[in-house]
Every structure is written in C-alpha cells, then in structure tokens.
C-alpha cells in the first residue's frame, strides 16, 4: 500500500535530535519519512550526494523545512546552501511545503531588517546572514509561503498534526464533490415543470423535485415528504407547507393524485 512520502530538510548537526523526533512522528502517522542520514534517499551512482537529494524531492508528496541557527554548507558549485537549494526544488515541484523557523532566529531576522545598512550587526544566534535570504525567499514566495516560528519540537509537531488533518479533510471534500458531479442527473418528466408550477401557485410548494415525486405514492404523502402537514376537514384538506396554509378540496386532491402518478419516471 502506498503512503505519503515526506521529505525533511534542514541543517543536520544543530538539528539532529529534531530531525529524529520528526522522523518518528511521521512514521507513527503511517507515512514514509525521507531523511538523508537514514538512507531514505537513493544515491545515484555517478552523481553527487547533493544532486541525489534534490532529485528525491520529485518523488515526495510533502516537504517539511526546519530553519535553525545555521545556514549550512554550500551546494557544490553554488553560493546557496544545500537546504536552501532543497527548498527551491520543492517550490519548483509545487508540493505542499511546511516551513518552520527557530524563534530566536526570527528575532535576529527582524533585528537585521531594522538595521539594514549598518556597518556591523551582532546577532544573538545566527552564524551566517545568508539564513536571512532563505527566510526572505520563503516569505516572498507566491505559494507555500507560511513561516511558523517554534521554540520547541512540540510546536512543530502540533502544527503538522493540525495542518495534515485539514489537508486530509480538504482532499476528502474534493473527492466527494467529484463523485457528486459524476452522478447522472435525474431526468424529469416532460410534464414535471407544469405540475411543479401548479403546486407552487395553488399551495405554495417551492421545493418539489422529480425524486420526491417518484418517492410519493399519493399527493398527501408528497406533502408530508416535503415537510408539510395535512388536516382532514371532511370535505377539504387543510394543507400547511413552507409556512403557507391552504384549504384544498378532496376532488382537487384526487386530480393531483392522478397527475402525480402520470409524471413519475420510475
């Protein structure tokens, strides 16, 4: 049975324990975690490890990005870090991205933005200002640009639980909508519109459908199916439906019975 594959991207040494906990969290949900240090990635012979990591993202369904205090090693032949390149590749693949940033790093980022142009800034935790470029890229993305701050691993796990539950609900609703659209529409009898108008004008029935007509065995039963009530007044029926009350002669009701039977389609 196939299951969602979830790529976890971050620097390694400073976030090693976070990555391990997220991996177990993903496994406990029945999903497949993809982390390079656990040999979850196929290393293509004749290619670099870094390129293999990028290539694996196209085989994944969800991308989780953790931005910590380190920017990380540069991708071979590039000025961007491996994590930064992985994020860009996930954007190119248009898969759902869940980005998290250490709150202390976010504070440094805000301090950096307030002091743009200063000759020198000292940051509390960040070791390379290039990490601010990654954060900026996330925030300026046209899609998947949510950036969630965290102070503990619990913050990350709780957010992912809620988001993935909503993702599943959204998927199920879309599937139900597709099914409902694929269902053939019930064909109405050629005289249904005339009968519908007559009941609307005479009694005030506004919610008549061909399916309800097919279900009813008599006009009285039809009224009840539509949520109305009927009181027998000996010669007439007192019919209340949709908040409107009308006295209808029993002879008229018998005519409605005949017309009802005539426009059934099943």
Task: Write up what this structure looks like.
The chain has 266 residues and is α/β, with parallel strands linked by helices. The protein has two domains: 178 residues, Rossmann fold, CATH 3.40.50; 71 residues, no CATH class. Helices cover 47% and strands 15% of the residues. The strands form two sheets. The chain has a five-stranded parallel beta sheet with strand order 2-1-3-4-5, with helices on both faces. The chain has a three-stranded antiparallel beta sheet with strand order 6-7-8. Helix 2 runs parallel beside helix 3. The longest helix is centred in the middle third of the chain and has 30 residues. It is elongated. 25% of the residues are buried.
Record the SSE blueprint:
Elements: E1 5-9, H1 16-28, E2 32-34, H2 49-57, E3 62-67, H3 82-93, E4 97-102, H4 103-114, H5 130-140, E5 147-150, H6 153-182, H7 192-202, H8 210-215, H9 219-225, E6 229-232, E7 236-241, E8 244-249, H10 250-262
Parallel strand pairs: 1-2, 1-3, 3-4, 4-5
Antiparallel strand pairs: 6-7, 7-8
Helix pairs in contact: 2-3
Shape: elongated
Which residues sit in consecutive blocks of at least 5 with pLDDT less than 50? none
- The value of Rg in angstroms is 32 Å
Strand content: 15-25%
The helix/strand class is alpha/beta
Query: How are the strands of the largest sheet arranged?
Result: 2-1-3-4-5
CATH topology of the largest domain: Rossmann fold
Question: TL;DR of this structure?
Answer:
Helix 2 runs parallel beside helix 3.
Essential attributes:
single chain; elongated; 10 helices; alpha/beta; about 270 residues; Rossmann fold
């Amino acid at each position: 049975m196939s299951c969602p594959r979830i790529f976890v991207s971050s620097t390694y040494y400073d976030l090693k324990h976070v990555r391990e906990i997220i991996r177990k969290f993903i496994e406990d949900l029945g999903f497949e975690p993809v982390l390079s240090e656990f040999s979850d990635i196929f290393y293509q012979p004749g290619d670099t490890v870094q390129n293999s990591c990028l290539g694996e993202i196209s085989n994944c369904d969800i991308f989780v990005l953790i931005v910590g205090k380190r920017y990380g090693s540069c991708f071979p032949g590039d000025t961007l870090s491996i994590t930064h390149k992985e994020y860009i590749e996930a954007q190119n693949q248009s898969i759902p991205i869940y980005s998290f940033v250490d709150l202390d790093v976010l504070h440094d980022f805000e301090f950096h933005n307030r002091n743009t142009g200063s000759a020198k800034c000292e940051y509390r935790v960040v070791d390379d200002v290039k990490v601010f470029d990654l954060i900026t890229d996330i925030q300026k993305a046209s899609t998947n640009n949510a950036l969630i701050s965290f102070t503990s691993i619990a913050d990350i796990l709780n957010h992912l639980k809620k988001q993935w539950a909503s993702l599943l609900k959204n998927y199920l609703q879309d599937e139900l909508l597709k099914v409902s659209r694929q269902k053939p529409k019930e064909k109405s009898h050629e005289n249904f519109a005339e009968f519908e108008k007559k009941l609307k004008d005479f009694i005030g029935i506004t919610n008549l459908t061909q399916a309800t007509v097919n279900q009813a065995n008599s006009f009285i039963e039809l009224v009840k199916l539509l949520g109305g009530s009927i009181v027998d007044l000996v010669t007439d029926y007192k019919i209340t439906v949709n908040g409107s009350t009308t006295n209808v002669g029993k002879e008229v009701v018998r005519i409605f019975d005949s017309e009802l039977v005539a426009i059934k389609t099943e």
